[in-house]
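Narrative progress, year one. The postdoctoral researcher (J.K.) led the effort to move from monomer predictions toward full complexes, under supervision of the PI. The following entry was the first complex the group processed end to end, covering 256 residues in total.
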Amino acid sequence: MFVSILSVFSGSSQPHWTALRTWWREQARAKGSIAATSLLARNLRDFLRDSTPERRRQRYGDMEYDWEHRVNTTSGTVGWRARLLGCFHSPYQPTEPALFHEMMAALPIAFEQFTFIDLGSGKGRTLLMASEYPFRKIVGVELIAELHQAAEENIRAYRSATQECSEIEAVCGDACDFSFAGEQLVLYLFNPLPEAGMRRMMANLEKSLAANPRAVYVLYHNPLLAHLIAGSSAFAWLGGTEQYSIYSARSGGQTG
Ligand SMILES: C[S@@+](CC[C@H](N)C(=O)[O-])C[C@H]1O[C@@H](n2cnc3c(N)ncnc32)[C@H](O)[C@@H]1O
């Protein structure tokens, strides 16, 4: 098992390997190499704990959406390599449908003027749910290849008589380096990035806004690093609950 675990992280030029190296460097730089080693051990321990039959059974608790739509977005079927990588970034967990629709209802926008982007899109459940709204376009960015492939299959398999947007693109890559085009955006974040990654992503977003002021909304689900957006002079808090926060770019008028 240990050899298999090492093989996941070695000899690969995949984005997840690059991200792991970045993770290690960032941890060692911020906390020192001993703390980074201890965090590594803790992540491995969490992974082993998460592999017990009981925990595996619990992960199937999110299957109702899949049953209804004949897709595969559950965290229950994620392979051990992707789960292990998830321990070092952000473990895959799909957004709960009722909460997603509550967040959409809170957006004061004309959907057809906006592109929806999910950074850390996993198996693509939010991309499918967003396609029930008339967005111009939908984009998902996922680091882990296995999850990205599942998202592509789900996009192909999804059938809905009420689907309003069929322009859906899944990209495999690191969200920290995502380059924002100059469109009006709804940016969805379900806690995909650690602090250093969020800072990089926010710097890219702020640069894009400075170059091209426009309406941009950030939907931040489980906002553990909310201070990074709240502290940005480019954004104002618009509303939310304990489960999510919505921010809007100060530079763009509210389009709706
Ligand atoms: C909590 S899950 C959310 C999944 C999806 N957004 C949803 O709401 O259903 C976070 C996702 O972020 C992905 N992730 C973590 N770090 C990433 C990065 N640097 N770039 C892109 N995706 C990343 C994880 O692999 C995981 O699939």
